[in-house]
Amino acid sequence: MAVKEFPMGTVLIQSEQAISALHVITKGSVKASYPGGEFFLNKGDVIGVCELAYDSYFISYQAVEDTALASYACADGHLAELLRTKSDLSNLIVSSLFRQLKEILDQYELMKFDCDNFYQYLMKSYSEYGRFTAKHGIATRVLPALEDLSEMELEDDVPDWLNSYYGQLQRIMKSITAKSQIADFILGMLLKASQDVYEIFSVCRELYEYKAEIAGLLMNENKLDFFDLYASILYRIGAHDEDSTAITAALGTMMIQLENQDSIDRDMYKNRVQEYKNKLETLQNATDSPEEQTSSDVPDLTDSLHTILTYAGCDEETTTNFKAVIDKYNNLSDKNASDDAGRKLRLTISKLFYKVYSQAFMKSLSDSNIPKIVKMFFNFGYVDEKLAGMENAAYLYSIVDSLPSDPSRNVYTAYEWMKEVYEGRKAPCRNEFDNDYAAYVHELKVTGKITAAEEAPMLTDRSKQVQFELDNMFQSVNKMTFGRISIFCPVFTESNVLKDLQESLVSADKVRESFERIRSLDYSAYYRDTMYSNPDLGIPKESVSVEILPDVILMPNVGVRGVMWQEIEGRKRTTPARMMVSLFQMEDLGNILVRLTGEYRWEMCKRIQGARWNDVSEPSLTSEYFDYIQFYKKNRELSADAKEKVKLSMQKAKNSFKEMFIRDYESWIIYEGSGSPRLNKVARTILFTHCPFAKEVRDKLKANPLYKEMMDRYGVKQSQKVHHMDNLIQKVKNSGAEVPEEIADQRAFLLM
Questions:
Q1: What are phi and psi of 429, to 5 degrees?
Q2: How far apart are CA 250 and CA 241, in angstroms?
Q3: Which of 96, 322, 327, 537 is least buried, going by the fewest C-beta atoms within 10 A?
């Protein structure tokens, strides 16, 4: 037996660390922590008794005061020998097990109770929010994440009888004096209890993540949360309104709820609360109501819909019907109602909206003086000043002639993109069936909808091409980027504005900054391998990498999602991918583009690998990742805890290998790239192999043992490639010729 002392604060054992011994606390106390909970061990307790059935710990242990541990080897039959020969130690192990089990089961019950209460609190808060907005004539906003939330349901819950079972077993064990005679029974009990503890922790992990999801709805860094919903009402009605006390109290309760939530970023929480307190103080000190805008400050947007319909030249039936449904929509108290009547109304509006949009767009192609209101329709989906809210409408009017897109940097508004297609600078996107325009026209001929004589002229008809884009990509992606498909309506409404429009407006600068951030980590994200040949210089065939940044199209909506629509144009691999985001992006643009980059990497690899994209005998990102997920349960490199995390992650990804990879890629860029490990060993190795960090990041991480082996392999591999390039360059120089730019660029790329 070896006794070792540790100062306060020492991390004694980290989860996923291999188990080799049991540690008896002879002095001090230790905090045992796991996702969503913690408990304390004191003198006489045994560290590791809850994890004996596994190869690694799934609890982390830290000394909360100066602590001494006596360690006993428990591998390779040592434990059975200890239980037979050391009765005092056997008693300690058994009694400590029951103490820890009771603590864990009590915490599980409390977590389950908290989850139910938290959910009920959230639903009640949203109901109260709706009551306040209706009373004050404020548009009710719907949080995107709220649609996916439901009451907690556990697929594999802890059995009801487990608590009483171990309670009775503890009483039985106390009555047995000669425990050395039943050492094998005790060993079996310890191993079975360890398995039960692991199952309890698996459920606790689900409960913790469920609470974290609700906490994120109450407050998050994007301000798409209940805290902002309530605070916005208060800022709108002022601190002296009769309801201000109730709303202030509701916000106070919300802060109390969030105060002790581990999943909430503490700095973000403090900043949000301080911002709220500052604004509240300003409101309370205000004696006069804010001045109303003067009529000269507000643009004349009266009867905007009539202006749009007149410009489009719609027939009388379309004009009458569109006005009628917009009027009906205006009169709805809840424009995002999920009932059948609301759904049908939004569907009717959508059909008429796109019909009017197409007609107006075609007319605008020959118009050099498009009215501002019509431009608002094209770029924002704006149709009515009352639906948009006058404050929002005035802002849209003020920016419509100076939108921050930039086609020269591959960032387009939807209207600019359609003009690019019409003028032949861009080919139409593939439709939802993955057919490009040529395949679509050919299909029309095959199905007899057009004749062979009509096929050739239709292929070059620019009007038909842009109509194909309007009917397919535009309509599908507009709904997808909006994000909340069940309540989608293409017209701009105040109820969908979840945060400040100026803050959420996407610009070419913001897009480029986000891509620069991604490329500073995943430097090869948008590089593609192409073949370079120059027989005159003795270069018959050489693979070189070329960077092709994607086209980004800003869709005319207030949305929360991004779409990676296609990875290349046609079959040519040196064409840009096409990504779409909302012009007013409610979620964090940088995180959305990280996600789209992950999806692009997956789809591009599948495109290159073809039918063998999941064949692990031909190593690639998709094949290795597919093999990892398919056989993770048998993977000896993964601990029991890591396997459980993979299982839960796959459930969240709805068993989609692609979605699972995208989530891991997000963790790779957002967390691992800043030195905060989140992935397991296998996933990290795959990501490092196929999406290596840039040199600057590698240099920062090389001291971390998690990356050392991978970096060593990567360094050897890159050195071989650089050596090959150096030989090739020297060969060209020896011939007296100038080194081709492509070869010089490839060498520089290999050193990135």
A1: -70, 160
A2: 15
A3: 327
Task: State yes or no: pLDDT of 137 exceeds 90.
Answer: no
d(CA 181, CA 396): 83
172, 165 contact by CB (below 8 A): no
Closest listed residue to residue 524, CA positions, set 545, 498, 509: 545
Residues composing the chain: 752
Provide the 3-class DSSP secondary structure of residue 427.
coil
What is the distance between the alpha carbons of residues 232 and 133, in angstroms, rounded to a whole number? 10
Closest among 216, 233, 163, 219 to 193, alpha carbons compared:
163
Do residues 377 and 308 lie in contact, with contact meaning Cβ atoms separated by under 8 Å? yes
What pLDDT shows up at residue 294? 47
pLDDT higher than threshold 90 for residue 623 = yes
Beta bridge pairs of residue 46 = 24
Contact between 444 and 438 (Cβ < 8 Å): no
Q: How far apart are CA 51 and CA 316, in angstroms?
A: 75
Cα→Cα distances 565→478, 590, 594, 600, Å: 12, 18, 15, 9
448 contact partners, CB below 8 Å, separation of at least 6: none
**How are beta strands 21-27 and 67-73 bridged, if at all?**
antiparallel
Q: Is the pLDDT of residue 140 over 70?
A: yes
- The CA R_g of the chain, rounded to the nearest whole Å, is 31
Across the chain, mean pLDDT equals 92
Q: What is the 3-state secondary structure of 558-570?
A: EECCEEEEECCEC
Q: What is the pLDDT of residue 76?
A: 65
Give me the DSSP letters along 586-641.
SS-HHHHHHHHHHHHHHHHHHHHHGGGTT-TTS--HHHHHHHHHHTGGG-TTS-HH
Q: If residue 529 lies in a helix (H) or strand (E), which one and from where to where?
A: strand 527-534
Region 480-496: mean pLDDT is 93
Q: How far apart are CA 16 and CA 684, in angstroms?
A: 15
Q: How many CB atoms lie within 10 A of CB 20?
A: 13
CB-based contact 558:484 (threshold 8 Å): no
Residue 289 clears pLDDT 50, i.e. is over it = no
Answer whether residue 2 shows pLDDT above 80. no
pLDDT digits (tens, 9 = 90+) for 257-275: 998 888 898 999 999 999 9
Query: By three-state DSSP, how is residue 227 classified?
Result: helix
The pLDDT assigned to 297 comes to 58
Q: Dihedral through CA 647, CA 651, CA 655, CA 661, nearest 10? A: -70
